[in-house]
Design goal:
Strand order of the largest sheet: 1-2-5-6-7-8-9-10
CATH architecture: Alpha-Beta Barrel
CATH class: Alpha Beta
Order of helices and strands: HEHEEEHEHEHEHEHEHHHEH
Oligomer: single chain
Mean pLDDT: 93
Number of strands: 10
Largest sheet: 8 strands, parallel, barrel
Number of helices: 11
Low-confidence stretches: none
Number of domains: 1
């Protein structure tokens, strides 16, 4: 079932959904299922599965020189989506990204997903390669999420890269895109960022999932600004509970977000990460209750491989 169908069938009730990471290369899929099993109690309507592009590592040769090698630490997104759907009978939303893919590789990945009966994709630019200063597309790849979204929209119309193909079968993907209540770090300002977000909706995006945020007013203001410029699709809030002291500095650096002073102060008072997790759970519960009261379509939790805090939050809400 498509994400938009889940939201429509909820008839105003706020749903519970999660995002998970593929296991590290070499780990068994059971490691992910062990993480997901407790959360199935709350019947997530769909599960997002992230995609992780290649990284470069340097290995020392016998002659003392360094050899640059490409590696993907969390492979298996497409297969994992199929496995989750088969194991839990729950819909999945694979992330598809620009980075690391040519247009032809993207087309083949979408064909695989279509054959597997996966009806949803979250379309993202993706990150640049670590240790590189900026995002660099593949020689025959997409630079922007809007370009990748156009390819998905074309395939939904039966338009493939090879224009000579006859009697093509259209795909039927429900495509979501990312939204940034505190603006995308590469955008000069929020107004410009919203302009490109509206373009993605015009190209066929059917819903928006936000970057994590810790101040609900930023989400509410973001939704208001979206509606004012004619963006009418559902806007799903992304929630991430703080779990360690280091995240107070790490999350703003990596995700280009602000943490409210009250939250940062409470974390600072904690003697250990056990206390931090409790603060993070309490903050996320308070956030979530306010969002549910405001009628958000679903609470989408970024698990990052840690189910216990999300379980505690969901137990208070669902």
């Amino acid at each position: 079932m498509k994400v938009t169908e889940h939201l429509k069938n909820a008839t105003g009730k706020t749903l519970f959904t999660i995002e998970v990471l593929p296991p590290l290369k070499g780990e068994n899929i059971r490691s992910l299922f062990d993480h997901m099993d407790p959360l199935m109690e709350f019947k997530p309507s769909f599960v997002d599965v992230t995609y992780h592009r290649e990284e470069y590592v340097y290995k020392k040769r016998e002659n003392g020189l360094l050899e640059k090698k490409s590696t993907r630490k969390r492979p298996g997104t497409v297969a994992l989506c199929a496995a989750i759907q088969n194991h839990y009978k729950v819909d999945t939303v694979p992330h598809i990204i620009c980075g690391g893919f040519s247009k032809d590789e993207t087309e083949n990945a979408l064909i695989d997903l279509h054959f597997l009966g996966i009806e949803n994709v979250l379309v993202l630019q993706g990150d640049g390669i670590k240790n590189e200063g900026r995002f660099v597309p593949e020689p025959d790849g997409h630079k922007f999420a809007s370009e990748l979204l156009q390819q998905v929209a074309d395939m939904n119309k039966g338009i493939y890269l090879d224009e000579e193909l006859l009697n093509t079968t259209p795909t039927n993907f429900c495509a979501g895109v990312a939204g940034y209540p505190e603006k995308h770090f590469a955008a000069p300002n929020l107004k410009t960022d919203l302009k490109y977000l509206k373009l993605k909706v015009e190209l066929g995006a059917e819903y928006i999932v936000t970057q994590m945020f810790f101040d609900n007013e930023k989400y509410f203001d973001f939704v208001k600004k979206c509606r004012e410029i004619g963006i009418t699709v559902p806007i799903i809030p992304g929630i991430k509970p703080i779990t360690t002291k280091s995240q107070v500095s790490v999350l703003p650096t990596i995700f280009h977000i602000d943490l409210p002073e009250a939250l940062a102060d409470e974390v600072e008072k904690c003697k250990d990460n056990t206390a931090v997790r409790q603060v993070g759970v309490e903050w996320a519960v308070k956030q979530s209750k306010e969002l549910i009261k405001a009628g958000v379509p679903t609470l989408h939790f970024y698990s990052m491989g840690k189910s216990d805090p999300i379980y505690k939050i969901a137990r208070e809400l669902f």
